[in-house]
Design a protein that fits this description.
Layout: H1 2-16, H2 24-74, H3 79-88, E1 94-99, E2 105-108, H4 122-130, E3 132-138, E4 145-152, E5 158-164, H5 168-206, H6 223-276, H7 282-313, E6 323-325, H8 327-344, E7 348-353, E8 358-360, H9 362-378, E9 385-393, E10 405-412, H10 434-439, H11 446-456, E11 460-466, E12 470-478, H12 488-492
Parallel strand pairs: 7-9
Antiparallel strand pairs: 1-2, 1-5, 3-4, 4-5, 6-8, 9-10, 10-12, 11-12
Helix pairs in contact: 2-5, 6-7, 7-11, 8-9, 9-11
The structure holds adenosine-5'-diphosphate.
Adenosine-5'-diphosphate (ADP) binds at residues 375-376, 378-379, 412, 414-415, 417, 425, 430-433, 437, 442-448, 471.
Length: 493
């Protein structure tokens, strides 16, 4: 149990620790050291091999020179004289052998060879044939590699000098100490150079100004990285700004909603208090009940509109609810529903034109058109008109996304909107005439919902108006609206 708990803690610790990233300085250092040592070893072995070969051939040449000069001394002497001459020759490390014309060793500085026949030795045979010969071979007597130089004397005997040859491994072994010394010096130099080098390379990287990635002029290889940092920074900045905007927009909207709800609530609370205190007679009671009813309806309208807007903000309308909608039928329905209201205000409603069926969210489109016609009635004058005109438009530069659209124009002959107000009216809770809007049941959210619903269908809405003459809202919706909206819709509303 203890063990597993410990193991778990260890695995958690390992889980939390960030993976170790290699140090650039160490990487540069280890690579340079490895490369330098490799070069040093190659150079030393190469030089040693050449040096060894040169030394060997020099040894052979010197031995042959000595053999030739001794042979000159021995020529013309009797065997006894020869023996006495060679026996006084003492040259450290050089073995002298005198072999008679039958191959028998008659003198040797190595006493073990006396009387042995060396006529079959390659250097002896070669000297008998050619006069002199030198070679390297393993000695049967000594057992190690020797350099031999043999010279044939005038009387047919052979003088042979030999000396031990240093093996290549022994030769390299003798070089080991200087080799290690050189390697140590190389490591030291490489350490200093790589430290300097890595500092030089890392210096500009350390000094990168991440706040302004493209302002850094360092290695060209870093440019893609700096460009991508810059791109990401700009994206982050834009996202932060967008979030900040959305947040302040949300805060402003919430405070507007509570402010709008507070007014009817205060009216309701005030009258409720009067009723409660029994201060109203029967006639007043009926009037007050009417007021409370109106204020409650106003509150309900605001809450309904806020709910629709937040559903649009969250794109919560069912995107699969697009159906093929006959706009003419929708328009007829709207006008029939609003006819009594219009008649009461002495306003004439009319429907013109036809248009193709469109794929859309019918509830949203009906809500948007209904809002526009209601506004046409609400901000009209007695005896005025509201016309809903339908038509199709082929794709051209005027159409959103250049696709075929349904064009819906809602015109009225009402009070009109001043030019500087024409864009503001789409903002949430913006009203030109607050009292008139409230009197007629407006929430200040109608056009915001219209604009959002049109954007939901990737359509556009424009307003043209003249004060005192009337207003026209021109809505264009693609016949086959794709089901994405958001973004711009949320920003502009
Ligand atoms: P409301 O609920 O107050 O009508 P809207 O968002 O529908 O809110 O409209 C915003 C404001 O734009 C209105 O308060 C009104 O002043 C103005 N407006 C809207 N439609 C018209 C119109 N057809 N003619 C004149 N003014 C209009």
């Amino acid at each position: 149990m203890m063990f597993s708990a410990k193991g778990q803690a260890e695995s958690q610790r390992r889980h939390r620790e960030p993976p170790k990233t290699p140090s650039l300085q160490k990487t540069i250092f280890s690579h340079i050291v490895a490369f330098a040592l490799f070069i040093v070893v190659i150079l030393i072995v190469g030089f040693a091999a050449v040096f060894y070969a040169v030394q060997e051939s020099e040894n052979e040449r010197m031995l042959m020179a000595q053999a030739s000069s001794l042979a000159e001394e021995l020529n013309g002497c009797s065997l006894e004289e020869q023996e006495s001459i060679v026996s006084v020759q003492r040259n450290a490390g050089i073995r002298i052998t005198l072999i008679d014309d039958e191959g028998t060793v008659v003198f040797d500085t190595n006493p073990r060879a006396y009387g042995v026949n060396h006529g079959d030795r390659p250097e002896v045979g070669a000297a008998i044939e050619q006069g002199e010969a030198s070679l390297v071979r393993q000695s049967a007597t000594i057992g190690s590699d020797l350099v031999y130089a043999a010279v044939r004397l005038d009387d047919g005997a052979v003088l042979r000098l030999s000396m031990e040859r240093q093996s290549i491994s022994g030769f390299l072994g003798s070089l080991m100490a200087p080799l290690l010394g050189v390697a140590a010096i190389v490591v030291l130099i490489v350490f200093l150079v790589s430290r300097r080098l890595s500092r030089r390379i890392l210096g500009p990287i350390d000094a990168i100004d991440v706040e302004n990635p493209l302002g850094n002029e360092i290695y060209s290889e870093m440019t893609p990285l700096l460009e991508s940092i810059d791109r990401q920074q700009r994206q982050l900045k834009a996202q932060n700004e967008e979030l900040a905007r959305a947040e302040s927009f949300r805060r402003e909207f919430s405070s507007n909603v509570s402010h709008e709800l507070k007014t009817p609530l205060q009216v309701i609370a005030g009258y409720a208090e009067l009723i409660n205190n029994g201060l109203l007679d029967m006639d007043d009671l009926q009037r007050v009940a009417g007021i409370i009813n109106d204020e409650a309806n106003a509150m309900r309208s605001i809450i309904d509109d806020v709910l629709i807007l937040s559903r649009l903000d969250e794109s919560a309308f069912d995107r699969d609810a697009h159906t093929l909608v006959d706009l003419h039928a929708v328009a007829e329905r709207i006008l029939a529903r609003l006819e009594p209201v219009a008649r009461e205000k002495d306003i004439c409603l009319s429907l013109e034109g036809e248009c193709a069926q469109i794929w859309c969210n019918e509830t949203l489109v009906e809500m948007a058109l209904s809002n526009l016609v209601e506004n046409g009635i609400r901000y009209n004058v007695a005896g005025g008109e509201v016309t809903l005109a339908l038509s199709d438009a082929l794709p051209d530069g005027e159409m959103p996304h250049g696709v075929p659209c349904a064009v819906i124009a809602v015109s009225d002959t009402g009070v009109g909107i001043a030019e500087d107000e024409q864009q503001k009216i789409f903002e949430r809770f913006y009203r030109i005439e607050k009292s008139r809007s409230k009197e007629t049941g407006g929430t200040g959210l109608g056009l915001a919902i219209v604009k959002h619903a049109v954007a939901y269908h990737q359509g556009t809405i424009e307003v043209s108006s003249e004060l005192g003459a009337g207003t026209t809202f021109l809505v264009k919706i693609p016949l086959r609206a794709s089901k994405t909206n958001d973004g711009d819709g949320r920003d502009v509303l």
